[in-house]
Amino acid sequence: WGQETIKGWHKQASAIQTASQEQACSAEDLKHRAQLQNKLAGACEEMCKEVGAYPKCAQCPKFVEPDSTPGVMTWEELLEHMDNLVAWGQETIKGWHKQAVSM
Fold it and tell me: Were both Cys, which of 4, 29, 44, 80 would link to 60 (CB 3.0–4.6 Å)?
């Protein structure tokens, strides 16, 4: 009874260790794949320029299409800028209030 039980425990512990090692290897592999993909991102964009696929490059990771209206602010950009100004103004006023209270 005792030796058979211990053998069962050893098998169970071995299976758990193998599973955790596989998960660790998978996580490490995913991390290295992301690093490689990020390193190749710039090269991918350059390749697309060379073959004439730029700026319609759908295969490049994290590809951001260049501004279609350079030097001109669109309504969407204007609204975003106004939202940023409101947030900045509110933070500035909070700072002034804190400064006034401390005097």
Answer: 44
